[in-house]
Design brief:
The chain has 19 helices and 14 strands. The chain is of the alpha/beta class. It is a multi-pass membrane protein.
């Protein structure tokens, strides 16, 4: 299996943290209990081997009394079938229940950890930017966190317990098979324990051939999961942008995109199917031969009278257990291929998270300079001013976008920023917010509370109340405050629907969504409000009304706007132009 050592190392890195976490004692306790139950099952299996010998000997000898007692509870020191079956059933059911309990606890812990690592420090944003530029290990994080973690925890436990159980079975039945099989002379060679050697050779041949036939399945499974996620993402995009697609009459293009992505699934599926066809054909033949192979090998001893019918059954069962344990790789290959693909996806995603976090820490360390804080005190400005020093912004491609030795935004002076499309205005705001990872900055000083409003507002899932108060806790804002903010932004018609749950990003118009975002600003009451074309979807009159409401309701707030229209110029004290001489040259800010 291709680079299986790397896959095992990835699985180890994903597994160990949970069993060393705050839940370690519960996790280790469940793990030990399931292992104990499985070992008990192995022990019962060994006892059942002796039962088979006694049971079939009773049949051969036509001993009805022994037959009945062996079927029921006890006969001459040998436990009966029912005596063995009852604890076997109990152990099996308890093992499944506890294993699934461990699996859901592990999945809950790993999911929470992965979500925290993805969201903390805005790593999700950095990964999103990187993925736009380069096809890396960051595609479809939703699938990795939901589906892949589910499959990883479930399959890891199943494979792990199965491997240990088969290893214990192998150790238990090696001696049994050696003692039962005796010796055989073939072409003048005396071979002791010949059935054990037969099981070993049969299993090795099967393992090698299985690997040769199915070794490409790991890669194909990896690609299949990605293609499935790509199709799901395309369909979700249609749902989320249904109005825009309908207005553009873009149904044909969306249909073609969905069909193309499904075509990738089908093409890869047939590639997998061909591999599965060969693998399943071999496995079926391998298992079919294995079911009669021990009888064929033990038949000479039976026909010569060296072993009884019960001995034949014991020998056959012991051979099957040894051969089955040695053939674990063959029987588990399909699951191993699927598991390896899941491990690869999760491990590469974890590596991407770690790299993004390290890059973010390096950026923050660079930002802090020699001090222990990312905020430096301005020297030539008022303490309440926004001061940025040594600002160098670039695109993910490395192209320099903006260079500014010092930028001072005076408190109490509302500022409008203008510039051509693509000059870097929105990127400047992202840098001020501390989320733009490309480039460098010596220091950023933003005093007090601040709020950034993007051109496209984000409306979270849930009620309208949650959308209006986001990112505040809805319970921390009174109904009167919400109603006052919505009234100021001309959203009175939505007040009765505050507690209604809907897909508000689809239900509300672009202008209404921007009004919702502006109402949030009235509730948050920041010292600094940065608006990135946050009124672009409003008509001129509504835009002026919105700015008027902001000035009246937030007299202590300094507003910094990216705006193109002249309707808002009266609500700003000065205008700054972001000037970029040429597309490949760094821009700079200068007074209008």
């Amino acid at each position: 299996m291709h680079d299986f050592g790397k896959i095992l190392r990835g699985a180890w890195r994903l597994t160990v943290p949970y069993f060393l976490s705050e839940e370690k004692w519960v996790a280790l306790g469940l793990l030990a209990t399931v292992l104990s139950l499985n070992l008990a099952q192995n022990g019962l299996d060994l006892v059942m081997n002796y039962w088979h010998g006694a049971f079939f000997n009773a049949l051969q000898e036509k001993d009805a009394s022994a037959f009945v007692q062996l079927f029921l509870f006890w006969y001459k020191g040998q436990a009966g079938f029912i005596t063995l079956a009852i604890p076997s059933i109990i152990f099996g059911v308890a093992s499944i229940y506890l294993q699934q309990s461990l699996q859901i606890r592990w999945r809950r812990w790993l999911t929470k950890r992965m979500i925290d690592e993805w969201i903390d420090d805005r790593i999700y944003y950095r990964l999103g930017l990187l993925h736009q530029e380069n096809d890396t290990a960051t595609d479809n994080p939703d699938q990795r966190i939901s589906d892949d973690i589910r499959d990883f925890t479930s399959d890891t436990l199943s494979i792990g317990f199965s491997f240990i159980s088969n290893a214990v079975t192998l150790v238990m039945f090696l001696g049994v098979l050696w003692s039962l099989s005796g010796a055989m002379t073939i072409f003048g060679f005396h071979i002791p324990g010949y059935m054990l050697w037969g099981a070993l050779i049969y299993s090795i041949v099967g393992t090698v051939l299985t690997h040769l036939i199915g070794r490409k399945l790991i890669y194909l499974r990896f690609v299949q999961q990605r293609y499935e996620a790509n199709l799901r993402f395309a369909l979700v995009r249609v749902r989320e942008n249904s109005e825009g697609i309908a207005l553009y009459h873009g149904e044909a293009e969306e249909r073609a995109t969905a069909k193309s992505r499904f075509g990738d699934i089908v093409t890869n599926w047939y590639a997998m199917l061909r591999r599965y066809l060969g693998l399943n054909s071999f496995s079926s033949g391998y298992d079919l031969i294995a079911s009669v192979f021990p009888y064929v090998m033990a038949a000479p001893h039976y026909f010569s009278g060296q072993i009884t019918l019960g001995g034949l059954q014991r020998t056959s069962q012991a051979f099957s257990r040894v051969q089955g344990s040695l053939s674990w790789f063959v029987s588990s290959y399909t699951m191993l291929a699927s598991w390896a693909a899941v491990v690869s996806r999760l491990a590469t995603f974890q590596d991407a998270l770690n790299q993004a976090r390290a890059a973010e820490r390096n950026r923050m360390a660079t930002l802090s300079g020699a001090s222990d804080t990312t905020v430096s005190s301005p020297v030539s400005a008022h303490p309440n001013d926004v001061v940025v020093k040594g600002l160098n912004l670039s695109l993910p491609t490395g192209e320099v976008l903006l260079h500014q030795d010092e930028l001072v935004l005076s408190a109490g002076q509302n500022i409008r920023i203008k510039g051509r499309s693509g000059s870097g205005k929105s990127t400047l705001f992202r840098a001020l917010a501390g989320i733009w990872p490309f480039g460098s900055v010596q220091s950023i000083h933003i005093p007090g509370r601040f709020l950034f409003l993007p051109q496209r507002p984000y409306l979270p899932l849930g009620s309208l109340r949650r959308a209006v108060t986001y990112p505040l806790n809805p319970s921390s804002v009174s109904d009167e405050q919400i109603a006052d903010a919505m009234h100021a932004m001309r959203l009175d018609h939505l007040i009765p629907r505050l507690d209604q749950t809907d897909q508000w990003s689809h239900r509300l118009s672009g202008g209404e969504q921007q009004r919702i975002a502006l109402a949030r600003a009235l509730l948050v009451r920041p010292d600094w409000l940065f608006m990135d074309e946050a009124t672009a979807n409003l008509d001129s009159e509504s835009e002026q009304e919105a700015y008027q409401a902001l000035r009246q309701k937030l007299p202590e707030t300094t507003i910094v706007s990216i705006a193109h229209g002249e309707a808002t110029s009266a609500y700003h004290d000065r205008t700054v132009i972001l000037y970029r001489p040429e597309p490949d040259q760094a821009g700079m800010l200068r007074p209008a």
